[in-house]
Amino acid sequence: xxxxxxSAFRRFAADKMQKVNMFETPxxxxxxxxxxxxxxxxxxxxxxATKFYYVIEGKGAFTIGDAxxxxxxxxxxxxxxxxxxxxENRGNVQLVVLVxxxxxxxxx
Length: 108
Description:
Jelly Rolls; globular; mainly beta; four-stranded antiparallel beta sheet
């Protein structure tokens, strides 16, 4: 399966942010994160992995290290290995973000 449409991977829930896996390989994973207003991904870090967020819809407050910036459609935020990162939907519309990380922590 080499071609996908992110609109087929959107799912929202009132209680928490939704992570919808599009695909994964031993080298990387690619998810769609769906956040309702007020939802957030806790700031955290991944040892030995690089992660990026690409905004598809809405606006999000992205934290990378000590900095937080608001990004809209087309915006990219990425964290280096061991760098803290997270996202929060501080707006009043849904936020949809494409997320990928390498190497994939789900594979040894």
